[in-house]
What we know:
By secondary structure, the chain is mainly β. The protein has one domain. It has six helices and twelve strands. A nine-stranded mixed beta barrel has the order 2-3-4-5-6-7-10-11-12. A two-stranded antiparallel sheet has the order 8-9.
Amino acid sequence: xxxxxxxxxxxxxxxxxxxxxxxxxxxxxxxxxxxxxxxxxxxxxxxxxxxxxxxxxxxxxxxxxxxxxxxxxxxxxxxxxxxxxxxxxxxxxxxxxxxxxxxxxxxxxxxxxxxxxxxxxxxxxxxxxxxxxxxxxxxxxxxxxxxxxxxxxxxxxxxxxxxxxxxxxxxxxxxxxxxxxxxxxxxxxxxxxxxxxxxxxxxxxxxxxxxxxxxxxxxxxxxxxxxxxxxxxxxxxxxxxxxxxxxxxxxxxxxxxxxxxxxxxxxxxxxxxx
Length: 274
């Protein structure tokens, strides 16, 4: 799978460097999605009220952390991860052959790491209130439920856990000045997606056995950026907290380039090593 991810430097060099990315927030990306224009009226479904469109096929853009993402990191390498001694002990006991024999190859494809895996994504709406994300790497499926966080059902822990999603919206009039030309109370001018994932099955943060526990909690922020010539980039910023194995929250950022078709989609099973 990793060999199907093209060189990101070559892919993006003819567009714009990452430092010059222009947010879609105030441009056509937001307004084209529709959504409520003001207060009152029935609350739209999560799909109808989406301020950005995340659906389609996406390809990983790996511009940094190449050694940790594109190949199996060397044993004992936890550079950049605030790992507690208990986590180091688990990492030092990592045995990919044992994981394979026990059918645990997907330990490094759970929600806290899956967005870091070189892959292609396919995002669709499963229903009006559920966003579905499929990965060709490891053939994983994530479901983002637009429900009340207090109503999260209890069930068996899984690699992808249970994810509660919400649109974060900024509207004109929330802190703006009445009387200005741009003042239209309730009009959306910016939006992104916040996903909170819990009920995780314990797994690995990297292919070399760096662990996270079942008590881990994952926050993800999904933003869309325009990089010129009609190309779109999805930025996923993640914060993982785990009182068992991490001293402090572990933060990562991953990028995905939108694809015009499913041409690069190549499903492959989980593997304990690359």
